[in-house]
Amino acid sequence: MESRPGCRPGCGACCIAPSISSPIPGMPDGKPAGQRCAQLNDDNLCQLFGSPLRPDVCRQFDYDAAICGERREEALATLSSLEDLTG
Question: Phi, psi (5° rounding) for residue 46?
Answer without folding.
Answer: -75, 125
